[in-house]
Amino acid sequence: LQRLRAAASQGMNARLVACMREVEGQAVNVSAEVPGSDASLSPVVVMTPRSGWWSCAVERASGIAAFLEILRAVSHSKTERTVLFFANTGHELGHAGMQALCEQRPDVFGKA
């Protein structure tokens, strides 16, 4: 690290090479529904990404924490509108989870 800092302070150029391997994995979306008292009203949709480039809490922790707190608060209240919660995977890969969700639940996104 010291050598890199010294080189940077002298205005030297560097090339970074990252070696990786591609591996297949499985990913899932997570959903929950809090029914409202008036089914004729359009639902409220709360969404957050749930995946990241690697397994670590730092990247998604704040969004997931807020998502869960909103879900907790709504589940303890009486709402007229149904509230749908979706935590989608693949936001870093062209929103793959969101695309799958839209294909699987056109009923939701046509009236939300």
TrEMBL record:
Give the matching InterPro entries: Peptidase_M28
Q: Which domain of life is it from?
A: Eukaryota
Signal sequence residues: none
Under the heading SUPFAM superfamilies, the entry gives:
Zn-dependent exopeptidases (SSF53187)
**Domain Peptidase M28: start-end pairs:** 57-106
Name assigned to this protein: Peptidase M28 domain-containing protein
